[in-house]
Write a structure and sequence with these properties.
By secondary structure, the chain is α/β, with parallel strands linked by helices. Helix content is 55%, strand content 10%. The chain has a five-stranded parallel beta sheet with strand order 2-3-4-1-5. Helix 3 packs antiparallel against helix 6 and helix 9 (176-189) packs parallel to helix 10 (213-224).
Amino acid sequence: MLLSPTLEKLRQLRLTGMAKGLEEQQKVKTYHDLNFEERLGHLVDYEHNLRENRKLSSRLSRAKLKQPASIEDLNYAHARGLDRSLIRKLSTCSWIKEHHNLVLTGLTGVGKSFIACALAHKACLEGYTSLYYRAPRLFSELEVAKADGRYIKVLQAIGKVDLLIIDDWGLSKLNGREEKELLEVMEDRYETKSTIFSSQVPVKDWHELIPNKTIADAVLDRIVHNSYRIELKGESLRKEKNKILVNEKKDE
């Protein structure tokens, strides 16, 4: 039997996984001992896995995570208050399914961004969409979108993401435009999607970051309500790495 016409039709039907699987079955002799149903099952599995891998690659690409990170790479050795049992619970992604938020606080360099990206990576593995923003970049993009008429479209796109990361939140007080934009973002996501806020500022001081107290109450209620919290302590991990490098150079 000539396989070329069959392979060509599979590719025309965009069943490239099955086409590759069929080519493999012709090369590997162990497949020849399987019956029709078993060989067909392998072809379907090949196609399914290929499509799932493509979807995962697409989700990770669209997430625009700040750094490559995974749950398995988290470091619990440093005394920074990272609760292994809480991370284990968050890694199930049940909190995303239930539309809870996560608040990460701590001094610069303690690993907030890495933890956020690791959880977003796990969310992508589990089939959820994710998107990373530094707070200044988020407000900058919304300002540009408002100027060129894409504001509603951008807001809707952000509102549809299963897990939104807003990193470096609270570096400066919000102006009148930014506080209204943050309210719009959180209103769209409230109890329908999940958001991670990463900040050097303790939660108790967040109210001072939003000058309009009415808006501050509305925004913080939507952020803090039903949120998990991780308060990281200790010195910057980057400082510790620098100390190690310095000591290594001294020993050379």
